[in-house]
Amino acid sequence: xxxxSRPSSAPTPAAASQRGVPEATVxxxxxxxxxxxxxxxxxxxxxxxxxxxASAGVNSAxxxxxxxxxxxxxxxxxGYEVDFLRHQITREIGLTQDWxxxxxxxxxxxxxxxxxxxxxxxxxxIAALVDADPTRxxxxxxxxxxxxxxxxxxxxxxxxxxxxxxxxxARAAQLVCDRLxxxxxxxxxxxxxxxxxxxxxxxxxxxxLSTELQILAYHEQRKNGAALALTAEQAAELAExxxx
Length: 244
What we know:
Blueprint: H1 13-18, H2 23-41, E1 46-47, H3 49-56, H4 60-68, E2 80-81, H5 82-93, E3 99-104, H6 108-115, E4 124-131, E5 140-141, E6 144-148, H7 152-159, E7 163-166, H8 170-182, E8 187-190, E9 203-206, H9 209-243
Parallel strand pairs: 3-4, 3-7, 4-6, 7-8, 8-9
Antiparallel strand pairs: 1-2, 5-6
Helix pairs in contact: 2-3, 2-5, 3-4
């Protein structure tokens, strides 16, 4: 495959499910891959299911079930070969190919995504940066010049874009998704704080940072509430002891 050739489809959960791998399993494969990569960097050759599961944050039975869909069962008493399992998962996810990515919306988040160095090593190439703000036209970010949103469809066609990343303000997210889909993009990662709709056959993943923070705030509040309740209980016991 040449650098600019367009893959027939991007690596998607739906595609994996069509091959018999449940989407819940697909969602966990990147966790296993990250854990295996860390082990490989440490020079570990084999790993037990228990050790790998602990590194990935799942239970070992679930891990073994997940990996069985890939035809990998490990060796009793030995475990899994780290490099071989990494290759299996990398191939299953589709990271052995070169996936061209366009980032639409080059504000603070778009800048950060464009400058993230981890994409290239995982098979994703940031091929183009697009923004509707004419003052950003020609601005260089991570070695690429920002192009105007009016060129989006042409960019998708010329560069064989496989995945669109939406990092626009909420009000523009749906329009951008519509244009990406119309241009032939069937995999979209949405960072915009908005609910967007895509047609059947298009895979959409959403990353909502504010929602994640709100979930953490909820848990912090519960932890603080438990601490306050414990303090009140201790105070009551102390009062009873004093008055008793």
